[in-house]
Amino acid sequence: MKLDKIDIKILQAIQKNGRITKAKLSELVGLSVSPCFERLRRLEKAGIVRRYLADIDIDRLFKTMFMIVEVTLKDHTTASVLQFENAIGKCREAVECYGVNGHIDYIVKFLFTDIDHYQEVINNLIAMNIGIDKIYTYIVTKNVKRFGEFPIDYLYTQGEDRF
Q1: What is the pLDDT of residue 160?
Q2: What is the spatial distance between Cα 124 and Cα 66, in angstroms, rounded to a whole number?
Q3: For residue 42, what pLDDT is reported?
């Protein structure tokens, strides 16, 4: 799908405020409401806009602990990888998981209520025999930079010839 500067402005605006009105969005990008809304629908249908979310401040609701866990698998067969990924996909405490290159295979961001909850989940994952060889855990002590938005306009200007 070929994107232009107006598409980029639409994407930037909705990632900052998913509840922006059609009128305000069209004003921000310099289009009338109908063409602006048609472009937004096109971006949604193309799968570029996947969903709209609310940014919940979980710390205002519950006492929680984020932990970053490095996971290395025993082997790298397709079956082993799928077995691990399926199990992590079903683990409610695993809020993000990235397959990575290097001396580890995955980085998983977990959310726990306390250290006992962490131990219970990790013990269950190990007991499931899903190919885990090593686990290294890091307790998040503070959030230095929270994800806010993708730098869409910057990436667009860096790679305009690819769009």
Answers
A1: 64
A2: 18
A3: 97
Q: Yes or no: say if 160 and 132 are a contact pair by the CB < 8 Å rule.
A: no
User: Residue 117 to residues 4, 98, 112, 121, 128: CA-CA distances in angstroms?
Assistant: 47, 22, 6, 6, 17
β-pair partners for 67: 110, 139
Burial profile 57-87: b = 16 or more Cβ within 10 angstroms, e = fewer = eeeeeeeeebbebbbebeeeeeebbebbeeb
Is the CB of residue 109 less than 8 Å from the CB of residue 96? yes
Spans in the chain with pLDDT lower than 50: 163
Decide if 31 contacts 39 (C-beta within 8 A).
yes
Please give the Cα distance from 48 to 61 (Å, whole number): 31
Decide: 97 and 108 in contact? Cβ < 8 Å: yes
The residue type found at 109 is K
SS3 for 3-68 is: CCHHHHHHHHHHHHCCCCCHHHHHHHHCCCHHHHHHHHHHHHHCCCCCCCCCCCCHHHCCCCEEEE
CA 135 vs CA 16, 43, 73, 132, 151: distances in Å: 36, 39, 9, 8, 32
DSSP designation for 157 = H
